[in-house]
Model the fold of this input.
Amino acid sequence: MRRWLPSPLLSASLLLMWLMLNQSLEPAHWLLGGALGVLAPLLSQPLQPHGHARIRRPLALFRLLWMAAIEIVRSCFNVTQIILLRRSADVNSQFIRVPLDLKSPHGLALLSCLINSTPGTVWVEILPDGHELLLHVFDLHDEAWWVHTIKTRYEQPIIEVFETPEPGGGRT
Amino acid sequence: MSGAESLPWWAAIPVALLLVLGGIVTLVGTLGLARLQSFYQRIHGPAISIALGAGCILLASMLYFTVMQSRLVIHELLISVFVLMTAPVVSMLIMRAAVYRDLRAAREMDPGNDAGNS
Amino acid sequence: MELVLAISVGVVFGAGIWLILRPRTFQLITGLLLMSYAVNLVIFAMGRLWVDKPPITPTPAIDPAQFADPLPQGLVLTAIVIGFATTALYLVMMIGARGLSGSDHVDGEEPRE
Amino acid sequence: MTTATLLSAATLFALACVVLAMLLCTLRLMIGPSAQDRVLALDTLWMCVMVLALLLGIRHGSQIYFEAALIIALLGFVSTIALAKFLMRGEVIE
Amino acid sequence: MLLASLVLLPFLGSVLAALMPQDARNRESWLAIGVAVGGLAIAAALFPQVAAGEVVRAEFAWLPAEGLDFVLRVDGLAWVFSMLVLAIGLLVVLYARYYMSPEDPVPRFFAFLLAFMGSMLGVVLSGNLVQLVVFWELTSLTSFLLIGYWHHRADARRGARMAFTVTATGGLCLMAGVLVLGHIVGSYDLDVVLAAGDQIRDHELYLPALVLVALGALTKSAQFPFHFWLPHAMAAPTPVSSYLHSATMVKAGVFLLVRLWPALAGTPEWTWIIGGAGVCTLLIGAFVAIFQHDLKGLLAYSTISHLGLITVLIGIGTPLAIVAAIFHILNHATFKASLFMAAGIIDHETGTRDLRVLRGLRHKLPITATLAIVASAAMAGVPLLNGFLSKEMFFAETLHVGGDRNWWMSYAAVAMGMFSVAYSLRFISVFFGTPAQGLPRDPHEPPRWMRFPVELLVLACLVVGVAPGVSIEPLLHLAVVATLGEDAPAYDLAVWHGFNLPLLMSVCALVGGMLLYGVLRRHFDLARRERVPLLHRLNGAQAYETTMLQLTRGAEWLLRRVGTRRLQPQLMLMMLALLLIPLLLAGAPPAWTVIPVRGFDPIFAGMWLIGAGCALAAAWMAKYHRLAALALVGGTGIVTAATFLWLSAPDLALTQLMVETVTTVLILLGLRWLPPRIESIAGPVQPPWQVWTRRTRDLALAVGGGLALAALTHAVLVHPASDTIADFFLLNALGGGGGSNVVNVLLVDFRSFDTLGEITVLAVVALTVYALLRRFRPAPESAGIPPQQRFEGDPASRQSPAEQAGSGYLLVPGIYLRLLLPFMGVIAVYFFMRGHNLPGGGFVAGLIFAVAILVQYMLAGTVWVESRLNLRPHRWLGFGLLLACTTGLGAWWFGHPFLTTHTAHVEWPLVGELHLPSAFVFDLGVFAVVVGTTMLMLVALAHQSLRAHRHPGEDLTADGQGGAEGRRI
Amino acid sequence: MTVLPWLNHLIIVPVLLPLIVGALMIPINQKRHGLKFGLGLASGMLLWAVAVALLVLADGGYWPGGIGVYLAANWAAPFGIALVADRLSALMLVLTATIALAVLVFSARRWDRVGVSFHPLFQFLLMGLNGAFLTNDLFNLFVFFEVMLAASYGLVLHGYNLRRIQAGMQYIAVNLVASLVFLIGVSLIYAASGTLNIADLGARVALLGAQDAWLLQVGAAVLALAFLTKGAMWPLGFWLPTTYASASAPVGAMLVLMTKVGVYAVLRVWLAVFGEGAGAAEGFGFAALTLGGMATVLFGAIGMLASQDGGRMAGYGAIVSSGTLLAVIGHSGGAVLASGLYYLLGSTLAMAAFMLLIELTERIRPPGAALIAITMEAFAIEDKPEDPVGVGIPGTLAFLGLSFAACALVIAGMPPLAGFVAKFSLFHAMLAAAPEGVPATTWGLIGLMILAGLAAIIALMRLGVRTFWAAGAVTPPRLQFSEAVPVGALVILCVLLTVQAGTVFDYLDRTTAGLLRSGDYAARVLGEPPVLRAPGAEGAR
Ligand code: NA
Ligand code: NA
Done:
């Protein structure tokens, strides 16, 4: 099973994508989409050193995404406000460092997606010495608040989603 | 606007609102790109265009076509997913490129000063 | 619309001409890229301009006047692909020449006085 | 006012906003000053065109425009990351 | 057939001679003698017919369309001349056997000599003017080869080139003249032309024809002012000089004049042109001959002078003058050939031809001396020798020129006679006096058979001189009748005509010549003079050299002005032509019908404000800010794509978007190897005003070109479309092509042949790029690792590409990029599958697939990807092309033309009926080629980086690609 | 007709065969030269046989009017792409195959190893050439031009050194721009006439309104610019000498053929579109062609005089020949065409042989020595007279010398070889075409051609003397049998062309007669029916 279907989730996503693209639920599309869903991950397997993500707790993931979505919309309006109303020089743009406990690459990826999708913050990189995340904040009021928010609102749930059974899992 | 006459008001108003909002947000994002002073500020501008601007338009599109064609048209979701997957990569790489380019430039200007990661 | 497209084609083509008359290989390749855009648009425009009438015929019995001219589109597609290939070729040759001659002049050597 | 005029006006407004946005991107693309600015502007331009494609789809009530948006969403970033990588590492493929 | 063999025989002999070994001197001579004797026999066999006044003709079809047959024609004149060519040829061949050194490579000599003999016979026997020109030029060519026989000597090369240039140019003029004659007469056949004399002389093109023919004849016969080549031709071996440059080839010119006499002569123009050239030549040649120090040089000028004499006679143009001309041609051939041979013997025996050194040779070479003295006497016009007879006829004819009171021609003739006596004396002076000491060789009489030809010729001089009526009269008569026909005059070849004016002139010439020689020797230091008095400035050879040099220089100068080796002017001219030519040819446009068009769309306009702005900015920045220019071009590209989308061309939009992406990556890969231009070091090399002029010019051209294209595009856009073939495609795509996306059906069905060619272009370019990159040498500045990667502040500088993607800064992006790979693959399949009915198809799918792989390369580097994925682009290319071809060829099975589509209808359980058109398989081929091409080019380019990484800072110019080459990509 | 007669399939074989063989070669390992050469040679020979077969079919009355039409993809012209094999295209195919065979054999020794991909590129070049000669569709012509050019780009750069790269940059840049110009021309023509098929264009041209006619003429003029750039008309052909001088010998020989493609395209399009029956557009641009051709001849002649090295001289020679052809096409619009085609045959064969020959003669001595030799001769600096004993010429040198002389004679138009016959018949035909009063341009052209011949004589003699006769020890070059045979064969063909001039002219007269009947041509191409489907095989169409 593992051999032929390395990631059922990925395969399912591909099938779903196929059906959505063709906007059809005909059997032919199920068949073809299914075949592609199996084939594509298999063929791309050699180029996937980190394997595929295992979502341990889907519910936590949904909660996280919902929360992030709200945060994104909120930040959007913040940033809009700043762009429209403030003078550029008055904006306190800063780099900050956030020490991370999250190790799972997939978790880090999700974190990066959330942070980058949230206007006002841009992920730069994880500094190799000390596993700190270097972050750029558009309008920084309080560095400690930011570190705290990221660690509790984002990192913790992500660790839950990806790393609960054995920390560092998901790596091949 | 072929066939738009058949659209009921309950759908037309949210679609129109989403369109207007999406347009405005997109514009504001690029306005940030154009008027902010440093690169590190400017990079935050397009983020709202991508996140909210494109999002609103996608939503409007889904709603519009779903009502228009009286069936669930949600393949625009694919676009959202792909944008969500690729936009972080782009901003990460551009940002990192900018940081290290600036670092290197600073080092070349003043070789004695071992500037850390700002 | 027609006027806008015509002017645009002219501007892009003009910029291309200016660039292909410059002495540096990179200018030349940039000019070629721009000229290809202009030329592709010209070919495309020969089928006249149609908005929202892509040549996709849902039924065999159609009124051809209701669709954009597919032929120029086919030609442009070929031209785009060939243009891409030849750009690649010129690029590789240009860096090869830079390596061999030490100059990025289009003649492969700096002009002699 | 019918729904059609309302939607048409809204689409037109959004289109105008997007084209203005593209203009602003172009401005940044031209003036730079740094290379990363230009890359960022180009990427945003791609995104604007994606939005433009979606808007054209709504304007004409046609699905034909969707694929272009899809392609930009999925593959539009490739040239941007190539540019970014070039800036950062001096070569695109190491 | 007999006639044909007469011409063919020497050529056959020539081929045989060329095939013999280097040292086959005897066999070569025997062969040549055989050829000459055979020729003589054939000619003899023709004699009865010719003597009966018949014109023997042989015709072979060659170019009937142009009214051109290969015609051989013998009349009396031709017969006499061919006898001359063959007989002197025989003697020369015999002489050459002894003259040529045993070390000389004789096959070449005899091959050329026999080829010349054939060509000369061809000239003489041609019954068609065009054919005559052919053989005429062949004689020039063989002469060139013979003069250059000792081509290791500079004088031989020079002489050969000079002779060839002059005579071949004359030949071209002759060709033009012949064309004009043919145009006038309507035929090139000699008989027809000769019969059309009045028509020719009355035609408005008579003068051009005459001038052109005269130019041919005068150059060939070394007439003033083209005489200079002949002395330089003396660098040839003496047999050649005696055969070609005294007896035969130089006679071709006068032969031609005689031949065409019935057609062209009889006008003042003829007399002035031909006679004028002849008089100048005869005086100059004779005068200059006196002052030569080289035996052969003296003979050469004397030949020039005698040819002038003959030319004058022809120019005078009375029938008697023609008789005299033909007579003198024969006489000159005999005495001059023998004199050349004698000179050759002297040269051969003493090792020198210098008149200043040679003295008293009669003691060592008594027989040769006697022969030479007799021949010289003939040349000087001493009575009882043949030269006397023809010269006296000449004197007689000069008296008639210009009526009774005009004597200048006669004075000139006497002067020439004096000079010829003087140089004859100078020639024989080598035999008198005390024997010279210190000659290069000790002279002895030559071998018996080497002297034999001289003896024979001298004997002929004597016989003709004493008994012309019996000896030469019949021959002469033949030739004269053939030339003059009914005009043939009565003439008397007696030795003694009583005391008359010509005799007085002869005596004057003899006495005056002796006096002149004596005076010159005593008082003018004849033996030491370096320069010819009065005429030394008239140096034709120097003029020729200068002309040739000036010609080359001038051509170079001109070439720099009307041509260029640089690219920019060429492109400028192309653009200028694009701007001007259509307008010049088609004129101003007619009144234009305009159909109402869509109104102004501000949004579309806004979009193109961007597109055009980007293009202009790119043009501004491309010199120093390449990356910016690239991004700006990308801006124009994406606006173009949006335009396609807007204007109902979704397929184009998709393709343009993908091509845009791939092009950007490609150019970036290339930019890696193009060191940046830095403004400060690239200062202007030209003065600023030049730069500004050029820029203004280019700007004007750019604006003009842009305006022109804009105007044309607009004109088309507002003009009603004509009845196009497009409707057919729209109507038949679904029914006939089985697809609703007409553009795709166009690509894979209606015009699939185009697509086949197009993917071939892709494959070819990929192969070329790959081949180029195999030998690629990067610029030294860019050969190393880029500075960014050497920056210590960047943690990635210490990591391999694989490590960067595995744990470094690319870890997080990498998760996405790797996750996207299967999605991109499926999307590629999606676009491929739907292509026939909706926007998409093999191109777009292929590009998407290639970009998907490319992203992985960007992420983790070449080595990592290729250790896990063996993508063989060459195979993709080959497979794709073959698949497309095979699909097309499948139609042959059904008896249909290549690429005819067929659809298989397969009933599947659960799925229903599936249509599998062959066009689909064809498109798969397209897909494979696009993937193969893109991968091959980009990956080959990316592989270049490996070299820098393998050997940091060293061995940068090493050929090959190191490890990358070994790996199959 | 439900099945296409199998002989008709031969028409497309000259395109398909090299394509398939080339594609087969791509995946083959770079080191297997022998295999690739074998494949290439087999393809070349087969191609030659097919070309000859087409010539026989076209001339033998197999097709009505001597015109074979092949509807690629089975769509009737003008909708689909039609390939046309008439006497002219068959002749060009034979010429191509002949030269290709010679070049292939020639390159077997050395050249195919100098870089990778020689053989596949060569096959693709053949495909492009053959396609360009066969196609009847303007855009398809563009595609085949691109195939040909793309392959030639690779081949011009084959052997990769600075000189080649510099020349290649020029060649490629000019041709890329020319391709863009080509596209503009095609698109204008389509906009004006609504068709891309050349025969259809000829049929439509008389019916166009004034505006469309104007647009068509502008388009045609633009198109001609592209053709003439490839055909190297002055002032568009400056790229040519540089490219010839630096390309490797076999590639140079193929380039000779490629110049002719530009001329061929002009001929095809102009006779079909602006020939008889073109209404108001009849004779459009012919005068410009004459003038341009004459300027080209003059330029080429000047260039030959100014050239010192063989390659460049050959390049200018090619320009002269191109210019002559263009002037001739323009001059009488067809009356002297047969002679022009004969000239094309002779000059192409000789020039190809000459290109191969130059490479062999350059082995005789280093080029530097030659330069000194020429200055010495120009200033009449005599080296001291040596013993009058000749220098023996070994077989190889004799062979080279003879071949050189033969080529030089043909190129210069000197008797007795084909060059002279061509020139003479050209002159004759031009004069015969004007029975009452020969116009000044005709005299001018004749004079110019004679002058060009003279320039060629002077230049080639200088080169020949310098190469074969210059002072100093002549080292007989190492000559491979496989290098000598093709040169010899091409030279012998020139001789045969002269000897068999009558036969050749008969064929060419028939060719010309066919070309001038553009109405028949259009009727044949447009009237060719597609193959009908068998009743049972439903649905394919
Ligand atoms: Na195509
Ligand atoms: Na003729």
Observations:
- Chain A has two domains: 8-47, 58-162.
- The pocket of sodium ion (ligand 2) is lined by residues F 336, 338-339, 425, 429 (CB under 6 Å).
